[in-house]
Amino acid sequence: MRRKQIYIDEQDEQRLKTMAMQRGRSEASLIREAVRRFVRDEASTALADEENPLLGLIGMAESDHPDAAEHHDRYLYGLDP
Hints:
81 residues, elongated, mainly alpha
């Protein structure tokens, strides 16, 4: 395990102390759990983005309209911007 020093605001510190006392755990263990969850969730999100099959569609279509992204409703549905 590596030692890290962090700064948290007073309100979060009080909440952390209260949670630790209620759960019978140390503040450090709650912080480690929170970091573990955050890292896991971020990794899952990044992996999900990489595996998203819709991302493969990006750049497949061509358009004669250089402003198609901005005015797509006009070109697709005939709507005025």
